[in-house]
C-alpha cells in the first residue's frame, strides 16, 4: 500500500485564498481502481477531505492523486454502457446544435474529456467538424474506432494553441462530467479563451453542489471530483478569465447536475436563469461555511444509519449484494467501513471490472449473471442515480421478494 501527500493544497485552486478541510472521509483509494487480489499490497491511498473557499465559494478536495493514477490505459468507465446516458447526450448535442450551431458555416466543435465518443458521434453523424480530447488512451481508442476524431492529451493553453493552428478556433467547446475532474481550472479557462471564437460558447455540465448538499449525496466526492460546482462559484471562477456565465440549466443526471453556458464577456445576453439560481443558492446557504458544517453532520448520520442496517441484516443471515460497481461506491464503502461480510459481492455489467475487487473495501465484483442466478434478499443500490432505469429492468428481482437498500437522501429499505 502506498500513500502520497504531495498533491494536498492549502490555497484555493481558483482564487488562491487560504482553505482548510471542514471534514475528512478518511484514507481513500482511487475510486475507479478496481484491482486483482495480487495488487492489494501496492494499492494507493490518499486522504479524501473537502474544503469550502470562503473567498470564491469553490468546493474542492484538499488532496487529489496524480491524474495519471486516475486516467490511464486501463480506465474503467465507458459512457456508452448506460442507455440513459446515451439518450441524455443525444439531447445535449441536439440542444447545442439548435441553439448555437444552426446557420453557422462549417462549424467546429471541440469536446474535452470526450470518453468513448458518446456525445461527438451526434455531430459526426451530421458531418460536422469535431475534435475529442480524451486523455485515457483505451477509451479514446474506442471513439476512434467509431470514426470520432480524437487525440489523447490533457487540455491546457499549449494544446489549445496546437488545436487552433491545425483546425482554427471553435464555435463550441463542450464537456460533460469532466470540468470537475481538472485541478488546474485556471489553466483550462485560459485554454478555452484561446480556443474559442469571439462569438463562441463554452458549455459544460457536472454534478451540482446544491443537489449534493440537499440530498447528502456525499458519494459525489471522490478522487476524480476535485471540484463540486455551483452557479455562484462557476460565475466567479470564469469571470477571472473574461468568460461570463450566460445560462445555467438544471439536469437530472448523476443525481442532480447543472449545465453551464459561458461566453466571452459582453458577447451574449445573460439568461434570467442565472439571477434566479444565484438567489436560490444564497437562500440555500451555499456561500456560507455553516451549511458545510451541517453537511458533515448529515454525512456522519448517513454512515451510522447505513452501517446499523447492514450489521442488523448480517446478524439475521440475510444476503446483501451491491448493485453497480460505481466510482461513487468507493467513497461509501470506505467511509462507512463496508466489508465483504456486509456485502457478498457487487454486481456490475462492465467486463473490465468483473473478477476484480472493489477499491479499498475489496468486495468481489461479479458479472450481472451472478445477481440473476440467485437473487439476494437485498440489493444495496450504489448506482442510485440510475434508480428509475434499474427498477424498470429488475422486475424479476422485485417479484421474487428482493428489496433495495438506498442511502440518498436517507438510508431506507424499499421494495
What class would the helix/strand composition place it in? Answer: alpha/beta
Strand tally: 19
What is the CATH topology classification name of the largest domain? Answer: Rossmann fold
Biggest pleated sheet: 7 strands, mixed
Which oligomerization state do the chains in this entry correspond to? single chain
Number of helices: 14
Explain this structure to me?
This protein is an alpha/beta fold. It folds into 2 domains: 79-287, Rossmann fold (3-Layer(aba) Sandwich), CATH 3.40.50.150; 291-414, NAD(P)-binding Rossmann-like Domain (Rossmann fold, 3-Layer(aba) Sandwich), CATH 3.40.50. The chain has helices spanning 67-70, 83-101, 120-124, 137-145, 157-167, 185-195, 209-215, 231-239, 272-284, 289-315, 327-336, 368-373, 387-393, 395-399; strands at residues 2-3, 27-29, 44-47, 50-52, 59-61, 108-112, 129-133, 150-151, 170-176, 196-207, 227-228, 243-251, 257-264, 320-323, 346-348, 365-367, 378-381, 403-406, 412-414. The chain has a 7-stranded mixed β-sheet with strand order 8-7-6-9-10-13-12, with helices on both faces. Helix 5 packs parallel to helix 6 (185-195). The longest helix has 27 residues, at 289-315. The protein starts with a strand and ends with a strand.
Amino acid at each position: 500500500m502506498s500513500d502520497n501527500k504531495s498533491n494536498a493544497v492549502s490555497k484555493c485552486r481558483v482564487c488562491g485564498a487560504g482553505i482548510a478541510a471542514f471534514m475528512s472521509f478518511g484514507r481513500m483509494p482511487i475510486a475507479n481502481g478496481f484491482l486483482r487480489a495480487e495488487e492489494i499490497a501496492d494499492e494507493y491511498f490518499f486522504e479524501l477531505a473537502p474544503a469550502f473557499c470562503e473567498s470564491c465559494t469553490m468546493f474542492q478536495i484538499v488532496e487529489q492523486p496524480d491524474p495519471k493514477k486516475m486516467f490511464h490505459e486501463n480506465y474503467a468507465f465507458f459512457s456508452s454502457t448506460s442507455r440513459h446516458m446515451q439518450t441524455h447526450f443525444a439531447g445535449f448535442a441536439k440542444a447545442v446544435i439548435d441553439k448555437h450551431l444552426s446557420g453557422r458555416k462549417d462549424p467546429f466543435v471541440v469536446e474535452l474529456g470526450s470518453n468513448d465518443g458518446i456525445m461527438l458521434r451526434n455531430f459526426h453523424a451530421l458531418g460536422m467538424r469535431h475534435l475529442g480530447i480524451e486523455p485515457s488512451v483505451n477509451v479514446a481508442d474506442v471513439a476512434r474506432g467509431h470514426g470520432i476524431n480524437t487525440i489523447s492529451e490533457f487540455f491546457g493553453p499549449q494544446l489549445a494553441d496546437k488545436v487552433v493552428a491545425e483546425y482554427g478556433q471553435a464555435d463550441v467547446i463542450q464537456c460533460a462530467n469532466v470540468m470537475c475532474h481538472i485541478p488546474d481550472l485556471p489553466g483550462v479557462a485560459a485554454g478555452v479563451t484561446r480556443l474559442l471564437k469571439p462569438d463562441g460558447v463554452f458549455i459544460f455540465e457536472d454534478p451540482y453542489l446544491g443537489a449534493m448538499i440537499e440530498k447528502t449525496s456525499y458519494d459525489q466526492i471522490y478522487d476524480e471530483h476535485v471540484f463540486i460546482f455551483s452557479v455562484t462559484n462557476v460565475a466567479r471562477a470564469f469571470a477571472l478569465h473574461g468568460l461570463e456565465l450566460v445560462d445555467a440549466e438544471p439536469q437530472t443526471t448523476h443525481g442532480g447536475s447543472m449545465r453551464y453556458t459561458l461566453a466571452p464577456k459582453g458577447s451574449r445576453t445573460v439568461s434570467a436563469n442565472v439571477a434566479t439560481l444565484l438567489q436560490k443558492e444564497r437562500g440555500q446557504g451555499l456561500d456560507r461555511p455553516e451549511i458545510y458544517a451541517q453537511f458533515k453532520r448529515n454525512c456522519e448520520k448517513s454512515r451510522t444509519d447505513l452501517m446499523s442496517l447492514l450489521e442488523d441484516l448480517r446478524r439475521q443471515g440475510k444476503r446483501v449484494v451491491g448493485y453497480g460497481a460505481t466510482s461513487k461506491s468507493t467513497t461509501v464503502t470506505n467511509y462507512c467501513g463496508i466489508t465483504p461480510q456486509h456485502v457478498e459481492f457487487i454486481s456490475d455489467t462492465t467486463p473490465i471490472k468483473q473478477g476484480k475487487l472493489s477499491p479499498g473495501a475489496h468486495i468481489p465484483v461479479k458479472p450481472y449473471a451472478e445477481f440473476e442466478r440467485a437473487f439476494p434478499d437485498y440489493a444495496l443500490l450504489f448506482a442510485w442515480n440510475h434508480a428509475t432505469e434499474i427498477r424498470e429492468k429488475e422486475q424479476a428481482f422485485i417479484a421474487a421478494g428482493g428489496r433495495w437498500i438506498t442511502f440518498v437522501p436517507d438510508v431506507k429499505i424499499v421494495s
